Amino acid sequence: MRAVQLLKLNAVSAAWVDTVWDFEFADIEPLDTAIEEDIKEDSSVFKKVYKQLLPLSNDNDNTESVWKVFAENGVSVKTLVAVLASFVLGGKAKSPSVEQRRYSLQAAALYLLLLRIPGSVANKVFHQILFDTCLDVVLKCWPQSSGKKRKKDSLKSSQGDPKSGKRSKPPKKASEEMEIEEEEEEEEDEEEVYFSAQDLLRLRDDVICLVRTLLRLLERFSLKDKPQSADSCVRVSVPPREGGRCLPELAYRGFWLLCSSSHGEGNEVGKICTLLCFRFYKRIKCAEYSTPCVFCSHVVDEQPEAALPLLRILLQHICHQVKTEYRASGAQAVGRLVAKMPLQDYATFVKWLHSYSHSPRVAFRMFALDVALVLLAKEEQEDSDALPPELAPYLSHRFLVHHLVYGRCSDLSPTVRGHALHCLAQCLDLSTPNTSKGIHELFSSSSASTLLHISLTTTAIETVALFRQRVSDPKTNVRKCALETIMSLLKHGVIPCSPENLAILSDRCRDPAVSVKKKALQSLMGLLAVSSRYFMLPKAWLRGVVPAVIDSESSVQEKALECLDHVILTHIKSHINYRQGDTSQRLAWDLLRMMCDKCHDLRCVSHIKAFSVWARQQRFTSEFVNSLIWHTEGDRAPGAWLLLAKVAGSASKLKYGTILEAWDCTVRSPVVNVEMTCHILSVIGHIAASLDEDTKSRLVADLMGWLKSFSLPLEVISSSVDAIFCLGQSANSFLNEFCGELVSVCEDYLSGVLLSEKGAENLNEELLVKYLYTLGVASLHCPARVQKRVFLLVQSILTSSEQTAPEGGADLPASQPLTQFKSSLPTVVRAHAVITLGKLCLQHEEVMLRYLPAFARELEVGTELAVRNNVVVVMCDLCVRYPNTLTRYIPNISACLRDPEPLIRGQTLIMLTNLLQEEFVKWKGTLFYRFTAVLVDQDPSIADLCEYCLVDLLLKKNPLMFSQHFIECIFHFNSYDKHKKYNKFPQTESEKSRFSLKGPVNQGRRFRIYRFLLKNFTDEQRFNITTRISQDVLACFVDSELPLDLEGADLLADVFDVLSLKEMKLTVMSGPSPGDDTPEDEMAAAKAVLQKKLVSQVQKKNFVENVIPMVIALKNLLEEQRSPVLKHLMAYLQATMQDYRSEVKELFAADEQLAAEVEFNLKMFEKQKQQELEQQLSNVTLSPRPKVRDGQPPPPPTHTRSHTVVCLCSGKGCVLSWLGRSGSAGSHHPSPPSLCAEAPTLPEILRRTQVMPASVASLPASLCPGCRW
Questions:
Q1: pTM as predicted
Q2: Nearest Cα to 117, choosing from 73, 72, 74, 69?
Q3: Short-list 997, 1163, 1128, 1138, CA closest to 1062
Q4: β-strand partners of 1182
Q5: What's the average model confidence in pLDDT over 1227-1242?
Q6: Rounded CA gap, 1119 and 973, in Å?
Q7: Cα(263)–Cα(258) distance, rounded to whole angstroms?
Q8: How far apart are CA 989 and CA 975, in angstroms?
């Protein structure tokens, strides 16, 4: 009683107490200030009373005297409750202080403790409003966000804030924390209160005390007839986010108590359970799904009758409320809860999930895939006789694989497509056998009938074709996921490791996107680790990884080097650690051998980049190189010499004896192994500086004897001369002696063949080629020993046999080609003569100046493929050595882009790209227009190569390249040269005709180029190009600077057609493309709308000021001349005014007649589109599915070209024939067409087929009674 007396109950006015009870604890007058201050003198007054009353609340005989003690000591229960209510309501005041909050929580806990004491009901302690108020203070008194900024006075007193000068981040409002309750969504304009760490700890302890008291009360106090109070208990049981671990544990205890029979009967328990779960999932962090799932599962196990009917609602609620960042944990939660459902409920949920996977929201379709993957990871449900037949198909994993996962691989959204491919790859790693079996069925060659009676005739080839299409998807993420799926299919043997399938991975190593290239490298590595037994796989691995070493992106280079290091270098062991049976070591040597035998073109790549990088990293120690030398004596010799040729120069102490012995064996061998010999010569060149003079002399003698025999292959000749260069240590006297001797020998032989009367009769073609090749290689190292006679001899090979080299040193006329006169020498000899002459020109500039006109003329009139090809190679090499001199001959080289031979066109394209990248050649003259003309090359591979060179290599270096040349492209490809500024290039008539795309016949090719260029424009460039076209082109016709003749009309028609292209429209104005996802975030959507509005205003202003005056003037001019260009102008206005449909009269205020015509044309255009739509819909046939008896397979399809869609009814279902992918009408069913009674609406059919015209919404609706679609 001493503790109760601290509450000063005797001093409280009876009138005030009666008022409080009369007003039912709402809008009461505050307690007298003096009494309140007396009570607050002891800050722990409520805790003391609570401590004294706590033992009396237990179930024992002593508790019966509590209320008697109160009565005997004159303690009024009404007064006690009124005083407690006063302090409780103090916590609900506007911006309560920390002290008010603590008193409110403690008073509420004391009131709940009084209700726990037996006899509280008889003494009328319980009051519904006060009870609910005590529970509400938990949410009111606990700080909604501990990160709120301080009050202004607190900020001023802070030490750090005034100095920083930064504004703190505004706090999250209560509505963001309490999203479920309407009353919690109301925001209150309150002053913010600062809470110290100690304040938060004390408040947390008071909240925990109140919740624990509530739990004790619920154990005894029944809420069966108090549903509102039960709802308040649910609300307070959901803990605040900053409450620590203790509050969630108490919350689960409260949930379970509320589910007991003492607080409800029948469905009431289930409703409470479901309601509290809804609130719980909304309030707690969505990542914490595991504990709520355990609790919900426990509720279902204990009270299945009450909880199961509402479990489906809970699952659907989770599917619609889960956040994107917590999709994975949410799917796991759904999977655990679905496992508690009976068989029929499980099948019904899967059916609903299938419908859910077709939701228009991208997030829902993504989550459906996550849930399907979780369900596939569990054991398949077994069918039961009690299950309705129409639900049986939904139990199998096959249905989930075919219809939920694989079906979404063709989704309209790239995000969903990519995620579906990712899920399909993960399905193969699952341990459930039926999942893998379902995927294998997708790639089976035979037709199969699916579980929903839809006939699938998809063969393995068609399925692989779909994945090939996804690998080339325009979206980067889809391509990455497709690569992951292909790798998984190959790894598990679903599709064979054929060259075609492996090429999918290796080709993507050269993808434009960096992330895709890395994914392709990763996929090849993963496949090689588990499936290296396949013969074709190592070759595909080399084709993908090795070229990536010289990728333009450094991160891709590092990834490729990492792959090569991990697979090859790491497993090169010494003779002590080498194991013949080691799979990794055997794979490394197999790859090296393959590079020697089958992948010759890849060796230079690794030499250029990989080994130079590893050398800088000091990876090639003497021990490593000596290990390679040991491997040269066995069957691994080719691969070992290949590596030694690259790394021998990185080590100092080597076993030279083994290398020299290998050389001696090579010299004595009658058969020359070209590859190995070249590698040995390269190693000798690396170690030349470490050899003594006697050894060098012996090696030089061997090499000179070898070379003078002229029996070596061309590759060995080049390597031998390079070895002599290294052995001579670049000394001029040494090189002039030995290389000069080779030049003299070649000169004597050529003189004997070309100048003697009978020299050509017994000509040895192969030998003559070797002499020419040796002459060219040797002359590079001794230019001083090359006499003028040598040039004339080589020149004579390229001219007529009757016309030998001119006497007295006369030169070949510059106006004549090298092969103007037919020579009796074979073409291969003349082709090598061109290469040799090019090497001579590299060291003699005066000779180069003399022969360049002949080279250029040869390109123009030459007829031999090999000769012209080598001339192009020579001239491009000369561009590197003499860039300024060769500038005037770039038109001659670029003219080869229209050569009749595809080989020369491709060679020229590649070499010009390299020169442009290194800036040896500039975009001057007609080069850009000739380069872009290759985009419409008749060979698709060359056109694709041109597109790659322009976009992925050259545009990155000069982002303004396309926009700077676009207008002139229109003039150039129309061969229009009357403009004072554009298309003023010196060109011969043959060049003009070769590159001309003039006339209506070439209109499609011209516009293919225009579209390609515009597609790679930025919005800023599109905006500026419209203005430039108006000022530089349209204005010239308006001012009569350009005549409106036949050529001018063709040009102007092209200009208006270009302005009408959809690629000319700003991407902001055109909105997202059909393959883009709509933003789920409201802020992002609002930002997009605002951006579109601002850009529209700027574009409209530009259109009114710069374009409309020109268009009106041109319209009048064209009408006067009755020009056919007028229809192109009107088509442009019609396309442009779609964005300003309601502002036509305003924009064309200067020409009312034109405004009326534009408006009329727009109406006619819409009418025409409506007629086309009606014609398409008239081809749609709706026919019911024939009835199928249970246990019998569905009848075979009577037509194979139309696609099918199933109405997901709960009843019989129906099959509909609709438009195919190509847009043409599908084949009609042979039976008379009839409308299915359960057919979806026609707009829904078109939506599912991704064909949704704008006006289809006006069609009459026909709802399906089963699914209400």
A1: 0.69
A2: 69
A3: 1138
A4: 1216
A5: 34
A6: 27
A7: 6
A8: 11
